[in-house]
Amino acid sequence: MARTHLFPPDRVHYVWNRALPAVLEIDPGDTVIYELRDVTDNQITPASTAEDLTRLDWSRIYPLAGPLYVKGAQPGDVLEVEIVDLHPKGWGWTGIIPGFGLLEEEFEQPYLKIWDLSPGDHTFFREDIRIPLDPFCGTMGVAPREPGEHPVMPPGPFGGNMDIRHLTKGTRLFLPVQVEGALFSVGDAHAAQGDGEICVTAIEAPMYAVLRFHLHKGRSIEEPQFLCPKPLTAKYDEKGYYATTGIAPDLMVAAKKAVRYMIDHIAHTYRMSREDAYILASVVVDLKISEVVDKPNWIVTAYLPLSIFQG
Predict the structure, then answer these.
(1) Backbone angles phi, psi at 259, to 5 degrees
(2) Which of 2, 49, 206, 268 could join 89 in a cystine, given CB atoms 3.0 to 4.6 angstroms apart?
(3) What is the pLDDT of residues 128-143, one digit of tens each?
(4) Is the pTM of this model over 0.85?
């Protein structure tokens, strides 16, 4: 019979390492309830200021709840993670951290916004900008097969810090098992984010998560895959989008151009600072590859949902 487990909230780790001992063992079909910390391990709080972003202890970034040992999991199997439920704990933050983000060379000063998430299904950037919440975990993965310590950022074939904003309630994530027991870990919870997480932070938030685990034998995948059973942008689609394009022979250059133009558009049209526009873009703007066949130039497009603007 499938069981439900409570993962100990005081057990976290900060690197991937196949040698880490499992905190909890479960059977396939079991459900695990998590209480996840924010990405800074509680270094940022509702009382924090922008200067606190320059004093972070980086050895405590990405506290992951894990590892979780799934009985019977062997290299070559597929671990299915069913996302049963996700609930932020009432507040979150978004920041510009010097040295990080898509436009790090243009935004060199720290900047911090604290969000009130208490309404449960939405938050306000300001009184005329309402943002729907669509929580997900930015980091979910199994232990990599390579021995030794590996940083949580960047992602890898084992999953990890993927920041895929569609890994929301109801989605099923498939991960290639690389070590015995899979040794799954989760963290880096976000209340909302645009595709790209442009400024390197979404709405970072402590969160409750409920995950159910299934094991697939006789199936093998090389890198993560997922099944999303609902429309990807339903919470934003009702009023359409304003889009900016970036065109260049390099996709990263094109992405930067599209975002730069979008920041200019938001700041001018909605009368806000470029810092606020950058943060808003990170939370709601989706980057999409529009064209990769008309060489030598490719197109990246930034989509701003117009439904967030009230009135």
Answers:
(1) -70, -40
(2) 206
(3) 999 999 999 999 999 9
(4) yes
